[in-house]
C-alpha cells in the first residue's frame, strides 16, 4: 500500500506543478485520468482515494464514499479545465485560522492548504504569522495563503470567509485541567468571536480553544449580543475524541481502522467525554473491564499527551488532523454534499442541557439535524455515565454564559 501511495503522489506532484504550456504537464495529464489528476493537490485525501485503508485515517468509512464521489466530480471539472489549458482551480471556499502561528494552527494550516475545496486560506495570529504563510505558500496546492498579524489586521482576515477555525489561546501544562485555561482563553475567544460577528456573521465557526465546554457558550452569547447568533453554525470541535476512540478501539479489537466509527457524546473535558462503545461500528462486544479501560483512556487521552510533552503543550498534531477533518466535512456540506455526519458540541435539545456533543448532520446552512438515535438503547454503564457527566457539563456551560453576560458588548 505504501508503495502505491508514494508513487502516485510523486507523479501527481510533477503534473500539478507544471504550467499548461509545459509539454511534460500535458503528457502527464493525458496519462492519468481525472481522479488521478486530482491527487496532484489533494495530498492526504488524494492518497486516501487509492486504498480504503488510508481513507479511514482522515475521514472514516461513512464519509469515504461521498468524499470519493465529490473528489471525482471536482477532478472531472478540473480535467475539463486543464484540457482547455486553464490552471486547476479549487472550489471557492475561504477559510480563516485564528491562532495560526501556534502548535495546532501551523499543522492545521498545512492540512487545510491541501484541500481541493479551499481557494483562500487566511492565517491570523497576534504573533507574527508572515513566516508561516510564506512557507506554506510554496506548497503547490491551489489555495492562496494570506497572513494577518495583530489586532489591526483581524477584521480583514475575516472578510468573506466561509469557515473560521479558532485554536487561539493557551494550552494545558501537566497538572492543569482544561478549566484552568478559562481565565485566559475565555477573553481571547470572546474578542475573536466579536470580530467574527462584525465581519463574517454567516460563517461556520469552529471553536477549538479550551475549555470547549465553556468557550462555545461564550461564543454563543457574544453572537447573541451582536444579534447574529445562528446556532446551526457554531461548533465546538470534539473530533479529536472521535479520532482517538476510533484508534483505540481498532487497536484493542484488532480491527481495520477504516471500519471503526465510535460516536462520542457529552462535552470535551474529562468525564464529560462519553464514547458510546455500544454504538461502535462495526458492532463489537467488550467486556466490562474493556469498556472501563477504553472509556477512561479516551477521556484522559489529552492528559496522556500533555504529560508526555512534559510542559511543552498539549495535543497539536492529532488535534490539527482532527480539526482538518472537521473543516473538510464542513466544506463538503457547504459544497452540497448531502451525506456529511460528524460529532460536535453544539446547541442541542437532545438532553436538558443547552449544549451537548452528539453526531450531527451537516448541510449548507450548518447543522441540519441532531442524531438522537445514539442516545437510545444505551448500556447501563453509558446511561450512568451520561447522568454523571451532566452536572459538570452544566456548570461549565453556565460559567461560560455568566462570563459573557458579565460584560456585554455594544452591538
Ligand atoms: N478542542 C480540542 O480537542 C483541543 C485539543 C488540543 C488543544 N486544544 C486547545 O487549543 C488551544 C491552542 O493550543 P495550541 O497547542 O495550538 O497552543 P499554542 O500556544 O501553541 O498556540 C496558540 C496560538 O494562539 C495565538 N493567540 C493567543 N492569543 C491570541 C489572540 N487573541 N488572537 C489570535 N491568536 C492568539 C498564540 O500567539 C499562539 O500562536 C488551547 O486552548 C488548547 O487547550 C483543544
Describe what you observe in this structure:
Pfam families: Ldh_1_C, Ldh_1_N. Homodimer. GO terms for molecular function: L-malate dehydrogenase (NAD+) activity. Its EC number is 1.1.1.37. 50% of the residues lie in helices and 14% in strands. The longest helix is centred in the last third of the chain and has 27 residues. The protein has 14 helices and eleven strands. The termini are far apart. It is globular and about 55 Å long. Nicotinamide-adenine-dinucleotide binds next to helix 9.
Largest sheet: 6 strands, parallel
Helix count equals 14
The CATH C-level name of the largest domain is Alpha Beta
How many domain regions?
2
Could you name the CATH homologous superfamily of the largest domain?
A: Lactate dehydrogenase/glycoside hydrolase, family 4, C-terminal
The tally of beta strands, per DSSP, is 11
- Supply the helix-strand structural class: alpha/beta
Mean pLDDT: 83
Order of helices and strands: HHHHHEHEHEHEHEHEHEEHHEEEH
State the strand order across the main sheet: 3-2-1-4-5-6
Our measurement of the CA-to-CA distance between the termini, rounded to an integer number of angstroms, reads 55 Å
| The CATH topology of the largest domain | L-2-Hydroxyisocaproate Dehydrogenase, Chain A, domain 2
Strand content: 5-15%
Tertiary shape: globular
Protein name: malate dehydrogenase
Pfam family, one: Ldh_1_N
GO molecular function, one term: L-malate dehydrogenase (NAD+) activity
Family: Belongs to the LDH/MDH superfamily. MDH type 1 family.
